[in-house]
Amino acid sequence: MRTEIVHIGAGELNYEIRNIMRVVDKLKALGADINLENIGDPVAKGEKVPVWIKEIVSRASMEDCAYSYCPSQGVLETREYLAERNNRLGGARIDADDIIFFNGLGDAITKVYGFLRRTARIITPSPTYTTHSSSEAAHAGVPPVTYPLDPHHHWYPDTVELRKRVKYNPAVAGILLINPDNPTGAVYPEEILREIVQIAEDYDLFIIADEIYQNLVFEGARTRTLAEVIGHVPGIAMKGISKELPWPGSRCGWIELYNRERDPAFKTYTQSILNAKMVEVCSTTLPQKVIPLIFDHPEHEAYVGKRKARYKRMSETAFNTLKEIPSILINRTNGAFYMSVLFREGVLSTRQSLPIENANIRSLIESLLQSNGKISLDKRFVYYLLAATGVCVVPLSSFNTDLQGFRFTLLDPDEYSFLRMVNTLAEGMKAYV
Ligand SMILES: Cc1ncc(COP(=O)(O)O)c(C=O)c1O
Fold first, then answer.
1. 393 closest CA partner among 353, 355, 433, 338
2. pLDDT, tens digit, 9 for 90 and up, residues 220-271
3. Containing domain of residue 338, as a range?
4. Domain count within the chain
5. CA–CA separation, 275 vs 271, rounded Å?
6. Using a 6 Å CB cutoff, which residues line ligand 1?
7. How far away, in angstroms, is 249 Cα from ligand 1 center?
8. What CATH number corresponds to the domain at position 354?
9. Which of 8, 335, 337, 388 could form a disulfide with 187 if both were Cys (CB 3.0 to 4.6 A apart)?
């Protein structure tokens, strides 16, 4: 090309959760039976969408207005409804103008980082959900700036380290937290959230809180929303319906802006995000229209409650099955529907493997491992596990961390098949290390 056409952040865009599907497709073509534990889509994993939700959506689909554009910021009645819902909690108050709808949070995430000044950085957790770290790094054109989640302390943020990294890196303009967390399933106690807010206040930063799993906190776990603890600090909460309804195919999520008026630069920055949405016209109309009807439906609370109770049972089952394995460290999941297994330092090596019965599959995986050059040790394990057992998980190192392990989901609606999968993981790890 006459001139350089590749974006400076192009190399930062990597999404292993879906990359591994290329390998899965090849294995399927060779006759492998695959159990997908990599993607956080409850519907794809077999959860039934209740008939009452389908009825609400099908009634809305009979109205012409569901087919039109909506305001760039989102359907006004729905924004008013969501603002009031937030205000009932009693934290930072917002109105409809403080909410912007997107085509899924994925869209919100790329715009929130994409419209930040290139030199301003958001410090992201490590490990973290890759869409955040990759989009942030792509915006800056250099690798992510991170703070650690501590596997020895329930995967909570190490706030001492966070404070230090913020203090010594003046490029940091904001802090990302995900609560409940993906990939760890941690739910942060109020004190930790307040400490993060304090750090933001001390260094004049804003906070981004991804709260897409906010209503999937298991019984017994306690936390707060960002709005409840933020005080006067500027902030962005990210919410959506992909996980809670669940309706990931709706591509519908929104951001809530707190204390927008308190900082002129934050106000201008958030206005640029809205302007970007205007340039694009608007987000999908129909899902926005049905949100209040679904959230207010008399069966909604019990329905979400039942799902949370099942995920909690799955978390207990997995924890009890895996906790005695000496080569790993795990924590219970307290919200969302993921669990991360961490291999203890030094237990993985390039000499390990699992027996793969099918010779074609064996040679495919071995050639993939060879052609991939310097592959991380946990990815190597994940490939062997996939080829030998059909269970597809995601290497932990692909979540913006050097830690070695993997993430699986608690989504299988069939509890026996879930137990079988967890036993397969346990046997696979024991045989591998
Ligand atoms: C923490 C987190 N944020 C955002 C998303 C993306 O959500 P959406 O389907 O609304 O794009 C996910 C999806 O897995 C997620 O885990």
1. 338
2. 999 999 999 999 999 999 999 999 999 999 999 999 999 999 999 999 999 9
3. 10-47+301-432
4. 2
5. 6
6. 40, 104-106, 129, 178, 182, 210, 212, 240, 242, 248, 253
7. 11
8. 3.90.1150.10
9. 335
